[in-house]
Specification:
Rossmann fold; eight-stranded mixed sheet; seven-stranded mixed sheet; metal-binding; 15% strand; 30 helices; calcium; oxoglutarate dehydrogenase (succinyl-transferring) activity; EC 1.2.4.2; elongated; single chain; oxidoreductase
């Protein structure tokens, strides 16, 4: 055994680029009843390419074979059998090797092996060569995609910015091998499956099979994954010989799908050549790619798939994947089409669709939903994830086996939009995971007019996906069979591991950014090549015709058949004079018009603060069967330590209790979850969750109100105009902490002026319809600033009890959470009570309203500062203070009651925000409309400013006192006038 240790100790690589690390402890092994030790080489690193062995640990190649030999000498190649036998027999380290028998020859028996003892081989060369082969195998697994034939245009715009890729027959010298070794036979390591049933192969064949696996139309990135099982799974899918073979029927189905994808775009181009449609030309294989993912997922038990995508190829996906009626698509191109439904609608390549149909491959029902989304590209990503999570929740799919999501991306947006990164980071969080998403990148290799070399710092646009160890399958989109295989593997990966996976369809964009754009201005080299490029359908059909898989007649009949379908749909579309946007809904809500009834019994104490009012609102809704989901940064405890909806065991880590889930046996579930440090992604997620069902109260709370700034895209593009653009009601609630507390400009304002500016209400028209309901139905969203826990209680309940859904923006307090006067009696929350849109003054001013000289209108926290100042001044009988709790829609009717009650009072709007912020510009014209412009409306508040608040506490207090003085100086406005 000592000879064996000496032999192995001398087996060191001798090239300058290779290093060996020793192991400090020997691994024991019982041999013949005695405990022996073996000190293997622990690590073998090719320093130039910086590619360590599997998962950062050594291959232990010699060691593992030695252990295998000890257990069964026949389990290793004969050459290693001879080495180990000679070493154990005491042969010197340099003389332990004998040449193996020729491949395929008769195996040597024990006697023959023993007869070789004493021969003089170059054992060091043998071991170095075997280790070199293992290093070569790993190099292909790590960097084979660098030389794969991924670009259909073959112009190579990817810049790897690394050392040369040392792969191929001519580069074996880099690994310490030479061309004379190409015919030598090597035992394959356990980290590769290229041998299939064979365990040894000639070097030339090893390289050939590695290049077939990793360097053709598919490039695989997976070696950064730190899970051995997952890496081995991927290796099997791509390395086993003959894995990418398809039946005759599969090839014909693929051709049919390619025909429909290609001919759909050609039909649109022929009929509407001057219309923007953001066609799919150059990536027609996207359609069979998506259908393959859907087919395989359906086979694995998936019943519902929610999809999100940008505008490129959207009409094609609607037609050939979702199966939207072609006449409904074609009629969108008619400029004379009239809108029948309310709302502004949106362009044809932004609209969504929901469809339940039979999957023809699996003969199973499947529901497909393509979410509507704006031109803000990746903004739909978290929305899709939220809706997927909601559907999984409502059908009890805790592992994502029945409901899944597919996200389509553009290459430039995938790399450039931060919400992609945010969405990936939601993928494994317990309250946000959808148990794996298949991401498909339509990689045009250009972003509008921007070359990828100046559009991103990474080699691939997909590198951001590595943050969650998602495997990335790059594939040449002009090889439909390779695309089909990769998509099958991606769907299987998702079903097996329930983790995200990326399919990068490397393609090109045959036209410009849109059909009216001239791309030669900015990409002349690329578009000269594109003009010469054969279409993928032509190339694939020629391939199948050459193989005899289809006949020319069958191919031409398939084209004629689809052309006829398009022509007939086009004829029908001419009869369509009115567009019903309900045909484009991405998730219908059946049965919303039924009102929820009943109230929960009031329990416990007779007075509540803000947190208890919220708790009672949630609890009563849960008892009535309404699922509640509250999400955001630190919402479990509450940013201001007021909520405490999750109780933590003080002695046992991670042991928690959510009391609200133990209210009654038949209650609905309550989900409260701290989110990742994201606003854009998380708000989009919650919006999507709220889309899935109208019978859930879904709330997102900002840590501070102004944090909604970084979610502005979701607010502007989805929440504010959602019903107008897509006739999609949504009842999401935004809780935005707000208030000037002297804490500086960053944590003061929720920017209520922005929300108010986007209200669709006419400030100059006094409504004549029913105020309490009709106004709510007509508005695009509801904005409130409650000053009492009872009103907050009611507004949350009203959000569910009303017969329709509108987004609700709640300007929530900070100091009022514990303000001694901001309390409500339970009497204000008993049956028969309701949300107060305006809270009038009920003090001494009511005794003689004609004597009141001023009525101050305000909203929110400033009410308590005004009442304190009024008490200090003794003006209780001549200054009335009215709180407008619901700002939008504006309570014209109740404001009119107040102004009529005090006919001799001047009108003042008082706010703590700066004049160019807050509510003044919104409220003033509405107050004037209410009084028919017969009385002026004065302002008391801070002056205009660029920042929301001062950062100086003393300055804050000076400003506060100044506007309070103005509000109660009864001569101030007389002097101004």
């Amino acid at each position: 055994m000592q000879h064996l240790r000496t032999t192995v100790a001398r087996l060191r690589p001798i090239t300058a680029t290779q290093t060996v690390k020793s192991q400090s402890q020997a691994r024991p092994m019982a041999v013949g009843g005695a405990l022996r030790t073996f000190e293997p080489m622990r690590s073998y690193t090719t320093s130039v390419s910086a590619e360590p062995f599997m998962n950062g640990t050594s291959s232990n190649y010699v060691e593992e074979m030695y252990y295998a030999w000890l257990e069964n000498p026949r389990s290793v190649h004969k050459s290693w059998d001879i080495i180990f036998r000679n070493a154990n027999a005491g042969v010197s380290p340099g003389a332990a090797y004998q040449s193996p028998p020729p491949l395929g020859g008769a195996a040597l028996g024990l006697a023959n092996a023993q007869a070789m003892v004493g021969a003089q081989p170059n054992m060091e060369k043998l071991v170095e060569d075997h280790l070199a082969v293992q290093s070569l195998v790993r190099a292909y697994q790590v960097r084979g995609h660098h030389i794969a034939k991924l670009d259909p245009l073959d112009i190579g715009v990817i810049d790897f910015d690394e050392s040369p890729v040392m792969l191929g027959l001519k580069k074996v010298g880099f690994y310490g091998l030479d061309e004379s070794d190409l015919d030598k036979v090597f035992r394959l390591p356990t980290t590769t499956f290229i041998g299939g049933s064979e365990s040894v192969l000639p070097l030339k064949e090893i390289i050939s099979r590695l290049e077939m696996a990793y360097c053709q139309s598919i490039g695989v990135e997976f070696m950064f994954i730190n899970d051995l099982e997952q890496c081995q799974w991927i290796r099997q899918k791509f390395e086993r010989p003959g894995v990418m073979q398809f039946t005759l029927e599969e090839k014909r189905t693929l051709l049919t799908r390619m025909v429909r994808s290609t001919k759909f775009e050609e039909f649109l181009q022929r009929k509407w050549s001057s219309e923007k449609r953001f066609g799919l030309e150059g990536c027609e294989s996207l359609i069979p790619a998506l259908k393959t993912i859907i087919d395989k997922s359906s086979m694995n038990g998936v019943e519902s798939i929610i999809m999100g995508m940008p505008h490129r190829g959207r009409l094609n996906v609607l037609a050939n994947v979702i199966h939207k009626e072609l006449d409904q698509i074609f009629c969108q191109f008619d400029s004379k089409l009239e809108a029948a439904d309310e709302g502004s609608g949106d362009v044809k390549y932004h609209l969504g669709m929901w469809h339940r149909r039979i999957n023809r491959v699996t003969d199973r029902n499947i529901t497909l939903s393509l979410m509507a989304n704006p031109s803000h590209l990746e903004a739909v990503d978290p929305v899709v994830q939220g809706k997927t999570k909601a559907e999984q929740f409502y059908c009890g799919d805790t592992e994502g086996k029945r409901v899944m999501s597919i996200l389509l991306h553009g290459d430039a947006a995938f790399a450039g939009q931060g919400v992609v990164y945010e969405t990936f980071h939601l993928s494994d969080l317990p309250s946000y995971t959808t148990h794996g998403t298949v991401h498909v990148v339509v990689n045009n290799q250009v972003g509008f007019t921007t070359d990828p070399r100046v559009a991103r710092s990474s080699s691939y646009p997909t590198d951001v996906a590595k943050v969650v160890n998602a495997p990335i399958f790059h594939v040449n989109a002009d090889d439909p069979e390779a695309v089909m295989y990769v998509c099958n593997v991606a769907a299987e990966w998702r079903a097996t591991f329930h983790k995200d996976v990326v399919v990068d369809l490397v393609c090109y964009r045959r036209n410009g950014h849109n059909e009216m754009d001239e791309p030669l201005f900015t990409q002349p080299l690329m578009y000269k090549q594109i003009k010469k490029q054969k279409g993928v359908l032509q190339k694939y059909s020629e391939k199948l015709l050459a193989e005899g898989a289809v006949s020319r007649q069958d191919y031409e009949e398939e084209i004629a058949k689809y052309d006829k379908i398009c022509e007939e749909a086009h004829a029908r579309s001419k009869d369509e004079k009115i567009l019903h946007i309900k045909h484009w809904l991405d998730s219908p809500w059946p049965g919303l018009s039924r009102l929820l009834k009943g109230r929960a019994a009031m329990v416990g104490q007779r007075v509540c603060d803000w947190a208890l009012g919220e708790y009672m609102a949630f609890g009563s809704l849960l008892k009535e069967g309404t699922h509640i989901r509250l999400s955001g940064q630190d919402v479990e405890r509450g940013t201001f330590s007021h909520r405490h909806h999750v109780l933590h065991d003080q002695k046992i880590d991670r042991r928690i209790c959510i009391p609200m889930n133990h209210i009654s046996p038949n209650q609905a579930p309550y989900t409260v979850c701290n989110s990742s440090l994201s606003e854009y992604g998380v708000l989009g997620f919650e919006l999507g969750f709220a889309m899935a069902s109208p019978n859930a109260l879904v709330l997102w709370e900002a840590q501070f109100g102004d944090f909604n700034n970084t979610a502005q895209c979701i607010i502007d593009q989805f929440i504010c105009p959602g019903q107008a653009k897509w006739v999609r009601q949504n009842g999401i609630v935004l809780l935005l902490p707000h208030g000037m507390e002297g804490m500086g400009p960053e944590h003061s304002s929720a920017r209520p002026e922005r929300f108010l500016q986007m209200c669709n209400e006419d400030p100059d028209t006094y409504p004549v319809s029913e105020f309490a309901v009709r106004q709510l139905y007509d508005c695009n969203w509801i904005i409130v600033n409650c000053s009492t826990p009872a009103n907050y209680f009611h507004i949350l309940r009203r959000q569910i009890l009303q017969a329709f859904r509108k987004p609700l923006i709640v300007i929530t307090p900070k100091s009022l959470l514990r303000h001694p006067e901001a309390k409500s009696s339970f009497d204000d929350m008993l049956p028969g009570t309701h949300f107060q849109r305006l809270i009038p003054d009920s003090g001494p001013v009511c005794e003689n309203p004609e004597a009141v000289k001023r009525i101050v209108f305000c909203t929110g926290k400033v009410y308590y500062e005004l009442t304190r100042e009024r008490n200090n001044r003794g003006n209780d009988d001549i200054v009335a203070i009215a709180r407008i709790e619901q700002l939008s829609p504006f309570p014209f009717d109740q404001v009119k009651v107040e102004t009529d009650r005090y006919p001799n009072a001047d009108l003042v709007w008082c706010q703590e925000e700066h004049k160019n912020q807050g509510y003044y510009d919104y409220v003033k014209p509405r107050l004037r409309t209410t009084v028919d412009r017969t009385r002026p409306v004065w302002y008391a508040g801070r002056g205009p400013a660029a920042a929301p608040a001062t950062g100086n506490k003393a300055a804050h207090l000076v400003e506060l006192q100044r506007f309070l003085d103005t509000a109660f100086n009864l001569d101030a406005f007389t002097e101004q006038s």
